[in-house]
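quick one, 343 residues, struct below
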Amino acid sequence: MAKIRVLVVDDSLVARGVLMEGLNRHPNIEVVGYAINALDARQKVVRLTPDVMTCDVQMPGMNGIDFLKELLPQYPVPTVLVSSLNLRVFDALDAGAVDFVRKPDGTESREQFVRALTAKVIIAAQAKVRRAGAKPAAEVAAPPPALRLGAARILVGLGASTGGTEATLEVMKRLPADIPGMVIVQHMPAGFTQMYAERLNRLCSMEVREAKNGDEIRPGLALVAPADLQCRVQRTPAGGYYVSCTPGEKVSGHRPSVDALFDSMAENVRCPMVGIIMTGMGADGAKGLLKMRQKGAFTIGQDEKSSVVYGMPGVAKKLGAVCEQAACDQVAGVLLRHLKTRG
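---
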């Protein structure tokens, strides 16, 4: 098996040393070079043709976001961001980065950081670089008019991983304000889910916020599962629904887990429901989506062509868990069409 050839881009000598030493310890990874700024990185991408690039967001001169916007249309190198906790990481994902890992901030060990980075580099080597949208989200045409279909009795669950931050946004910004109650699981490091929910809330018509234990699921609200907690749908004695967000073991290798969400919906939801599985490595959510379909849910899977990584939706399709496949920019339309048939 050929090693994954990695270019490390970081202006900090100390950070470069940690990244290069940590990645080189993996038997299937070889760091083929490093760059100290965007100009240096561009020259080395052309000369070294790496399989994957790691890139800092904050660099002197051209920052990592502007660098990716300039580089990736010509040289689509799968890129993993190495970033401190800040909102700009989502701008870089919008520019085409595959994934990101948080720089150590004292809450985790260097070994934990290296393990997370290594895993994301391996995934990135198998990923497709998504083309940044032709229009900024703010310039996309207004979403469709209100559904007005008594959506209080419908629940929607959506799960995604690698490539999912932007894929989920593509779905959400095409939905009206009065969507059925939604719960979203996106694999993401601690500290970022609240910022991600705030970003969706700014760019979409419905209310979006990070879920808190006990939050009611209601029309017009999308709840994003908080990082490092398992998020499940529970039923009240009166027949309403809320989320439990609690510590617990990882499910299908993740916390929060899409399978944990979908399993809870299959077990507890008695009204009509929809399950959506988007781009992501692995199989989290596939078995849970199958359980939802077996309980009568309408299920949607992102197609292979539009997925950054056709893992989770691909496994779900093979299991027979998907009622209908759709490209990322068509998922919202499939959902709306289904909801209108119930109106």
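The domain at 139-341 is CATH 3.40.50.180 (Rossmann fold).
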